[in-house]
C-alpha cells in the first residue's frame, strides 16, 4: 500500500501520567481510547505490569481524571479492560467525573477461555462515558450482519449497532491473528496487545466527526492513530516504550493493505450520511516532510483553536 500522511498525528514518546499535564491539551480532545496494560504480569519492555492492585487502580483513576480535563464538553472516553475489572473501571470513570453511557461487551470470536470453577470467559468490556450527560457527537451506525438461522425475513435496512459487539475479530496470539498483526521477518508479533482496526473504526466513527481530535494515551502499536488518520481525524498518541514509538512511525510510513479501513465501508452502508461521517478518506498522499509535520503540530496544539471543538 502507499504512504499514509502523518500530518494530523502527533506521537509523544513519554508517559501519559506526565504528558497529559500539558496545558495545551486542555479541553481539546474529543475522544479517547484507553487500552492500558492490564496489570496481569505481561512482558512489557518499559513497564512493570504487576503493580499492587490498589496502586494500579489509583493510577487508572489519575489517568481518567487527566483525560477528563483534556476533553471537550460532551467528548467521549472508551475504556477497555478485562470483564473481571468492570466494577473498578466504572468506579474510576465516575470518580474522575465521567457520565456513564454504555458497557460494551466485545464478544470474542475465538473459543472462550475455559474455567473450572466458573463459566468460560468470552468477552472483554469497553466502558463508554462522556464529559457531561449529552454526547457532543454520537452517530447511530447501522450494520447488516448475517441473519441468524431462525430468522424468517431479511432486514430491509440493516440494524443499529448495539452494546454487544460480536462481529469484530480479535488479534489472538499466534497463527489466527492473521495479516493484520504486525510481525518481524521471522513472523514474531511486534506488539502482542495490538487491537484490531475494526474496533477503533467503530469507536471513532460513533463518537467523532472528521476534524475532531482523538487521543490514545497508551498508543502501543498505533492502531487508534492509523485509523483516525484514514478517517480525517486529528490524533495524539502517547507511548512509553521507544520500540513501540518506532513501530508506530513504521506503520505510518507504509500503510499496509491490512491496515486499510476503506474495505469496511460497505459494512456500514446502511448508515445515513456515512460519507460525511467517514470523512474524505484521503490516502496515498506523499509522506509529509519533517518541517511540514513540525509546523502542523505547532498549529495543532495552539490553545483555543476553534476547529478543535466544533
Ligand atoms: C495494551 S497496550 C496498547 C495496545 C494498543 N491499543 C494497540 O492497538 O497497539 C498498552 C501500551 O501502553 C504502553 N504504556 C505502558 N505504560 C505507559 C505509560 N505510562 N504511558 C504511555 N504508554 C504506556 C505500553 O508500552 C503498551 O504499548
What does this structure look like?
- β2, α2 (53-70) and β3 form a beta-alpha-beta unit.
- This protein has helices spanning 16-19, 53-70, 86-95, 197-207, 223-230, 242-253, 274-278, 290-301, and strands at residues 9-13, 29-34, 71-82, 99-107, 123-130, 142-143, 159-160, 164-165, 213-216, 234-239.
- The strands form two sheets. Strands 1-10-9-2-3-5-4-8 form an eight-stranded mixed beta sheet, sandwiched between helices. Strands 6-7 form a two-stranded antiparallel sheet.
- The protein is globular, with a radius of gyration of 19 Å.
- α2 packs across α3 and α4 crosses α5.
- The chain has one domain: Vaccinia Virus protein VP39 (Rossmann fold).
- It is an alpha/beta fold.
- Helices cover 26% and strands 18% of the residues.
- The protein is built from eight helices and ten strands.
- The model is unreliable at 1-5, 283-290 and 302-310 (pLDDT under 50).
- S-adenosylmethionine binds at residues 15-17, 35-37, 44, 46-47, 191, 193-195, 217-218, 220-221, 223, 238-241, 244.
Topology:
Elements: E1 9-13, H1 16-19, E2 29-34, H2 53-70, E3 71-82, H3 86-95, E4 99-107, E5 123-130, E6 142-143, E7 159-160, E8 164-165, H4 197-207, E9 213-216, H5 223-230, E10 234-239, H6 242-253, H7 274-278, H8 290-301
Parallel strand pairs: 1-10, 2-3, 2-9, 4-8, 9-10
Antiparallel strand pairs: 3-5, 4-5, 6-7
Helix pairs in contact: 2-3, 4-5
This protein binds S-adenosylmethionine.
Amino acid at each position: 500500500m502507499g504512504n499514509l500522511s502523518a500530518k494530523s498525528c502527533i506521537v509523544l514518546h513519554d508517559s501519559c501520567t506526565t504528558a497529559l499535564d500539558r496545558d495545551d491539551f486542555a479541553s481539546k480532545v474529543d475522544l479517547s481510547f484507553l487500552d492500558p496494560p492490564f496489570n496481569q504480569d505481561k512482558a512489557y519492555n518499559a513497564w512493570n505490569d504487576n503493580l499492587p492492585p490498589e496502586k494500579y487502580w489509583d493510577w487508572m483513576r489519575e489517568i481518567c481524571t487527566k483525560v477528563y480535563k483534556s476533553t471537550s464538553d460532551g467528548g467521549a472516553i472508551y475504556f477497555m479492560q478485562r470483564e473481571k475489572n468492570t466494577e473498578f473501571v466504572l468506579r474510576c470513570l465516575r470518580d474522575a467525573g465521567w457520565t456513564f453511557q454504555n458497557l460494551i461487551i466485545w464478544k470474542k470470536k475465538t473459543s472462550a477461555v475455559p474455567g473450572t470453577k466458573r463459566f468460560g470467559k468470552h468477552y472483554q468490556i469497553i466502558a463508554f462515558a462522556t464529559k457531561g450527560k449529552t454526547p457532543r457527537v454520537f452517530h447511530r451506525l447501522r450494520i447488516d450482519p448475517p441473519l441468524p438461522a431462525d430468522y424468517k425475513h431479511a432486514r430491509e435496512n440493516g440494524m443499529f449497532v448495539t452494546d454487544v459487539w460480536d462481529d469484530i475479530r480479535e488479534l489472538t496470539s499466534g497463527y489466527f491473528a492473521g495479516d493484520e498483526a504486525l510481525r518481524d521477518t521471522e513472523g514474531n508479533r511486534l506488539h502482542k496487545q495490538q487491537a484490531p482496526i475494526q474496533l477503533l473504526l467503530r469507536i471513532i466513527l460513533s463518537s467523532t466527526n472528521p476534524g475532531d481530535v482523538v487521543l490514545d494515551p497508551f498508543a502501543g502499536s498505533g492502531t487508534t492513530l492509523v485509523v483516525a488518520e484514514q478517517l480525517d481525524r486529528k490524533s495524539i498518541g502517547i507511548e512509553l516504550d521507544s520500540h513501540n514509538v518506532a513501530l508506530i512511525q513504521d506503520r505510518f510510513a507504509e500503510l499496509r493493505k491490512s491496515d486499510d479501513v476503506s474495505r469496511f465501508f460497505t459494512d456500514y452502508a446502511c448508515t445515513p450520511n456515512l460519507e460525511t461521517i467517514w470523512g474524505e478518506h484521503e490516502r496515498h498522499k506523499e509522506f509529509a516532510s519533517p518541517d511540514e509535520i513540525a509546523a502542523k503540530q505547532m498549529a495543532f496544539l495552539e490553545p483555543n483553536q476553534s476547529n478543535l471543538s466544533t
